[in-house]
Design goal:
The chain has a two-stranded parallel sheet. It has a two-stranded antiparallel sheet with strand order 2-4. Helix 1 packs parallel to helix 3. The longest helix is centred in the middle third of the chain and has 28 residues. The protein has about 190 residues and is mainly α. The model has no long low-confidence stretch (mean pLDDT about 95). It has a single domain, classed as Four Helix Bundle (Hemerythrin (Met), subunit A), CATH 1.20.120.1630.
Amino acid sequence: MFAVPVAAPQIWLFEFFGLLFCALVVSAMLRRPREKAARRNSTSRHGIILQNIGIFCTAIGPARPQLGWLSPPAIAAYMIILLLMSSAIGLFVWSSTWLGKNWSLEARMLEDHQLVRTGPYAHVRHPIYFAMLLLLLSMALAFGHWLQLALAVPVFVVGTKMRTDAEEQLLEESFGDAFRDYRSSTPAIIPRFS
């Protein structure tokens, strides 16, 4: 696959923040108490797989660490990677904390599930998927794999659509008009800037 030249610290910076992101996801999974879900939608598992394939498609191929570490393009890349990854991590922590026990990798409803419409969920219905998109874009920049986005983004979008559809089906069944009002007033993934 094609790669534009990058500076080696771009890769290291992304790898550090990528590992931190993964560690936070695992930590959130481990903090969840044992639960007995009332209902699950297993379609979301296929979406999880596709999202991860999309993200990893961005990493396919060798990187070309040929830029000078202090060259203007490298410095710009460091700043953008820092911005994207700190935003992705901050958004994941904010969102998963706000959801509390409602947070899960797989689409499911607890018997006492709540419809969360505040915090990051006042701006988008699925902020964690926006965080994952920021991670995907940061990876493309870090490795210089812009061409791989032509495959990665569509696969990621299909996986995200599968997950959001599964989650929203369960939410609509549980919360009816309250969820339909929320869905009609709040964007799914990308916040409105107006």
